[in-house]
Design goal:
Blueprint: E1 16-18, E2 24-26, H1 30-49, H2 56-76, H3 83-86, H4 95-109, H5 125-154, H6 161-181
Antiparallel strand pairs: 1-2
Length: 201
């Protein structure tokens, strides 16, 4: 359980921060960039939820994702340490979390017409916010894959296959969710905002 009695500690005043293992690293270190961008993704989801609250099904999915993203941050903040090394069982993303995302993607996608062009990030406020979350999660994924490569070189920890799978499925979820909130069964929603190649040449 986390207890935060004091918000500022002064321990980061010289540009370092602590991993969950206690190790101090520069605040611009790739692992920090990775879970910092996961946190940024979570903030984007919070903004999206300001526009999705009336859809209880989707909002519940997004609430689960926000909790998962804290799990992912904790996973990334604890590089490659076993329970024996740490003295406790570290929190890790598990395969079931990615599998749940796949099921929810399929659930939402089943309501939609097949896509015949790339879509522009717009339509409703909810869709625009979900597209923003999608692009931030893609950046988190790029950083995580860079971290995998760096860790492979210096053996400093690693990122699990389950964590990589989760972040990859997450951007897919946001894409489908953005299409979903632009769709309404009565046909009064804006629908997909489609890219028209070369339209303004």
């Amino acid at each position: 359980m986390v207890t935060l009695n004091k918000i500022y500690t002064r321990t980061g005043d010289k540009g370092t921060t602590a991993l969950a293992t206690g190790e101090r690293v520069p605040k611009h270190e790739l692992r920090i960039e990775s879970y910092g961008t996961v946190d940024e993704t979570n903030a984007a989801v919070g903004l999206a939820r300001l526009h999705t609250g009336s859809d209880t099904r989707l909002d519940a999915m997004l609430a689960r994702i926000q909790n998962d993203l804290f799990d992912l941050g904790a996973d990334l903040a604890t590089p490659g340490k076993t329970a024996a090394e740490l003295g406790y069982e570290p929190l890790r993303i598990v395969e079931a979390q990615a599998t749940r995302l796949e099921a929810e993607i399929d659930e939402l996608n089943a309501l939609l017409e097949p896509l015949r062009s790339f879509v522009l990030p717009g339509g409703t406020s909810a869709a625009a916010a979900l597209h923003l979350a999608r692009t931030v999660s893609r950046r988190a994924e790029r950083l995580m894959t860079a971290l995998v490569e760096a860790d492979f070189i210096d053996s400093n920890g690693g990122v699990s296959d389950a964590a990589l799978k989760y972040i990859n499925r997450l951007s897919d979820f946001f894409f489908v969710a953005a299409r979903y909130v632009n769709w309404t069964p009565d046909g009064k929603g804006p629908g997909d905002v489609l890219w028209v190649p070369g339209a303004n040449r």
